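Why do we care about 3D structure at all? Because function follows from shape, and shape follows, mostly, from sequence. That is the central idea of this module. The next example makes it concrete: a single protein chain, its amino acid sequence, and then its structure expressed as tokens.
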Amino acid sequence: MKKRIITLSAVILLALAPAATIFAQPNPGQNSDGGGVGGGPIGGNAPIGSGMVVLLALGAAYAGKKAYDVQLKK
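And the structure:
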């Protein structure tokens, strides 16, 4: 009985999953013609290059601290 319930719930989930995407709104970046859902691009044309530099620097600092802590334990 438990196996039937699991199988039935999986079939129902897989049958209803495509229906959930029908109700999704369009991407605001694609409708910038002044329509009801329009608007500028998402993020406001923010550059991501400087953000990547910050993330890489923080990652390197974190890795350096971890390596330093391992050396102290030895």
